Structure formats: structure tokens, C-alpha cells
């Protein structure tokens, strides 16, 4: 098929969850033989609509691992930067129809509801089916972090879902939330987040290298928290880590270091055991170096790629119920420990086994490998 995605932002490098999902979907759709096109805002005001792929930025992992851009993906940059233009850009509405008539897409994907009007306009002009890919239920996410505009977001999301021929939720929980918002069951499909085992896999050499760089010996427990740190749910999780989890670990008498990786973090570490690494080159190396990944998340929606990426590396994860929401616990085996009690959470972080020669749970990649996720998609119209 000819598939177009309209994204609300540039997805390269994929340095946070939404960009990781969008880049992975496009790459693995191309792997499946589909002809794939991306519409996104242009960089720095420069118009390179239909540009040569050689001009595109590098494609990376969760924190930018330097892998090359997939030359099979055609890119049109038809809008300028800015949140308002994500939702409504006269330039896009004016210029997209010519592309639609030329390309004749079969399916147009709105990545998040934000570019839903643009995606609907493109789909109508191309005679294509419209899909809303929903990494979160945005109305619920805005409500959970106390945003004053959550009702407006919820209303807009409902409109886009009504326009769409299909809605992809990332979990059964999010599917139920869309059902409660009046989206017909026939439109809904669970298309979960996934992992690429070429990038996230056990790596003993990376473990040794990163621990040496950080000066952390094998007698010291290395804990890791990572993500986009200016994203409200991750910012709240970092506060939970500093206020609730690490003080309890201090009282346990465990020798540990807590590494925090990701862009947009605070200027100063909120706890003396934290090391703020900023954006790192290859997050999989740091996951492999860690004795446990912590996800003390108490707000937000969707499913956490940090959990899936960590399990794919064979690294234990200690998470709250919200932090692991929507993830098949059985597929993660004993590598996923859940607790909503801070005492138990800290105790689990202190006792996760230090594993050498790690193994990925049987069946995990069958459930969450991107190749399988994409192959299981049921396209509107039977494509």
C-alpha cells in the first residue's frame, strides 16, 4: 500500500516516546514492502518539500543512537514550526492537495490527534482511509497532570476520532478509554508500542564500558531513570524518585548510584545520589549497564517504551502500576516488578538481582517486536 503519516513534529532523531513510535512504525512498514511518506514541519524555516533523503537528519534510538535515516521514506515538510501550526496550518491545507492527487495514498495516519485536520484533509483529497494513531488518550493524559485545558483537548480528540476510519490504541486500557468516549468498537484496534531487537538487546560489553565510564564498580548498584525530562509525567516521576524512593534506599544502607538520562532535565540533581547525564548517545548501552531501571510514574497515559526497551535488554524494571500500564506482565516474566507502595518500591530496587549473561523472556519479542506488531495491523478496507 501507499501509506502517509502526518506528524505534529519532526520525528528525527527519535529522542522521546512519540517520536520513537512514529519512526519505528514508518521503518517497519517500509520493511513490510509498503511505500511510505511522512509529512512533518520543516526545520528552521527551510522548505525542503519532497527533499532528497540524504538531507534528512540521523535516525536514532530512544536517545539518538546514530543509525542512519531510512532512505525509503519520502518526506514532505509543508508547515512551519509551532504548536498552532500542528493543529491548523493554512499552508498545509493549500499545498497538500497537489501531493495527494499525485501520490494517491491508500491510508493516511494522523500521528496523535493534533494534526488530525491536516490528515483528514489529505485523506479526503487522496481518497484514502484515515487512521488516528494514538500513543496516548490525550484528554486523559492532560486531565491526569492537572491541565486546565484538558476538556478542550478531550473534545478535539473526540472530533478527530469521529473523523477517522480506524483508531489505534496502544493498550486494552486505552481502548476502553476510547470506547467510553463513544468511539465505536469496530474502529478500534490495539497496536502496541514495540521494540527493535537490533537496537535493544543484552550487551555485556556495553555494560562494562558504561560502568567504567561512570566509575561504578560491580559492588555498587547502578539504577537508571530515563526519558524526556521536560514531559510532565516524567518530571513528576523524577520528583517521586527524589522524594520517595531514594531516601528510602538511603535508609537501606545499599551502595548505589542513580543515573538520570534524557533531555530537558533540572539544572541541579534533586538528590545527592543522582547523576544527571543529559541526553546520551545510545540509551540501550545505559540500560545494559544498569542493575535496574526505575519507573515511579504516577500520571500520563499510553504505555512506557522505557519498560519495553529495558526488558528487551534483559534489565529488571521496577515500576508503579501506572508506569507499567497496558504492558503484558506475563510477557515480561520476572523482569517486571510492580509496586505502588514506596517502601516496597525502594525495597525492590535494592534487591533486583545483578545479572550477568542476561536473557530476554521467552515470547517477549513475539509479543512486542516491531516486526510482529506491524504485521498484525488490520488496515481499514482490508489492505
Could you explain how this protein is built, in words?
The radius of gyration is 21 Å and the shape is globular. It has helices spanning 17-31, 83-87, 90-103, 116-126, 138-144, 150-163, 172-180, 204-214, 232-252, 283-289, 305-312, 329-332, 342-351, 364-368, 370-375; strands spanning 2-6, 35-41, 74-79, 107-111, 129-134, 166-169, 188-190, 221-226, 256-261, 274-278, 292-295, 317-319, 336-338. It folds into two domains: 2-195 and 368-375, 3-Layer(aba) Sandwich (Rossmann fold), CATH 3.40.50.2000; 204-366, Rossmann fold (3-Layer(aba) Sandwich), CATH 3.40.50. Helix 8 packs across helix 10 and helix 9 packs across helix 13. The longest helix has 21 residues, at 232-252. Helix content is 38%, strand content 16%. The protein contains 15 helices and 13 strands.
Compute the number of structural domains: 2
Instruction: Count every helix, treating DSSP H or I runs of 4 or more residues as helices.
Output: 15
Q: For this structure, what is the CATH class of the largest domain?
A: Alpha Beta
Helix content: 25-40%
Q: Count the E strands.
A: 13
Q: Round the Cα radius of gyration to an integer and report it.
A: 21 Å
Name of the CATH homologous superfamily of the largest domain: Glycogen Phosphorylase B
Structural class: alpha/beta
How far apart the termini lie comes to 7 Å
* Unreliable parts: 45-68
Order of helices and strands: EHEEHHEHEHHEHEHEHEEHEHEHEHHH
Query: What percentage of the residues does DSSP assign to strands (E)?
Result: 15-25%
Amino acid at each position: 500500500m501507499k501509506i502517509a503519516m502526518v506528524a505534529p513534529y519532526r520525528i528525527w532523531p527519535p529522542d522521546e516516546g512519540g517520536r520513537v513510535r512514529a519512526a519505528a512504525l514508518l521503518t517497519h512498514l517500509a520493511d513490510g514492502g509498503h511505500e511510505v511518506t511522512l509529512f512533518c514541519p520543516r526545520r528552521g524555516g527551510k522548505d525542503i518539500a519532497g527533499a532528497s533523503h540524504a538531507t534528512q537528519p540521523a535516525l536514532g534510538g530512544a536517545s539518538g543512537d546514530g543509525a542512519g535515516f531510512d532512505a525509503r521514506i519520502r518526506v514532505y515538510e509543508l508547515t512551519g514550526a509551532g504548536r498552532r501550526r500542528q493543529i491548523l496550518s493554512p499552508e498545509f491545507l493549500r499545498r497538500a492537495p497537489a501531493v495527494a492527487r499525485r501520490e494517491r495514498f491508500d491510508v493516511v495516519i494522523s500521528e496523535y490527534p493534533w494534526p488530525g485536520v491536516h490528515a483528514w484533509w489529505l485523506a479526503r483529497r487522496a481518497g484514502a482511509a484515515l487512521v488516528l494513531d494514538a500513543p496516548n488518550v490525550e484528554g486523559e493524559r492532560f486531565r491526569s497532570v492537572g491541565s486546565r485545558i484538558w476538556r478542550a483537548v478531550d473534545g478535539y480528540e473526540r472530533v478527530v476520532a469521529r473523523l477517522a476510519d480506524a483508531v489505534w490504541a496502544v493498550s486494552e486500557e486505552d481502548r476502553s478509554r476510547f470506547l467510553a468516549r463513544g468511539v465505536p468498537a469496530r474502529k478500534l484496534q490495539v497496536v502496541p508500542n514495540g521494540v527493535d531487537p537490533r537496537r535493544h538487546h543484552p550487551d555485556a560489553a556495553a555494560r562494562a564500558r558504561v560502568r567504567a565510564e561512570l566509575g561504578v564498580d560491580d559492588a555498587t548498584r547502578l539504577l537508571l531513570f530515563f526519558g524526556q525530562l521536560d514531559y510532565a509525567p516524567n518530571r513528576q516521576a523524577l520528583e517521586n524518585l527524589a522524594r520517595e524512593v531514594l531516601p528510602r534506599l538511603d535508609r537501606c544502607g545499599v551502595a548505589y548510584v542513580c543515573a538520570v538520562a534524557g533531555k530537558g532535565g533540572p539544572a541541579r540533581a534533586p538528590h545527592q545520589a543522582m547523576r544527571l547525564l543529559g541526553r546520551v548517545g545510545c540509551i540501550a548501552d545505559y540500560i545494559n549497564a544498569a542493575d535496574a531501571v526505575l519507573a515511579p510514574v504516577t500520571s500520563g497515559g499510553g504505555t512506557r517504551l522505557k519498560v519495553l526497551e529495558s526488558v528487551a535488554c534483559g534489565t529488571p524494571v521496577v515500576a508503579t502500576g501506572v508506569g507499567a500500564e497496558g504492558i503484558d506482565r506475563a510477557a515480561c516474566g520476572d523482569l517486571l516488578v510492580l509496586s505502588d507502595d514506596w517502601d516496597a518500591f525502594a525495597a525492590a530496587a535494592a534487591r533486583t538481582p545483578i545479572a550477568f549473561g542476561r536473557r530476554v523472556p521467552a515470547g517477549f519479542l513475539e509479543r512486542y517486536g516491531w516486526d510482529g506488531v506491524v504485521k498484525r495491523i488490520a488496515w481499514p478496507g482490508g489492505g
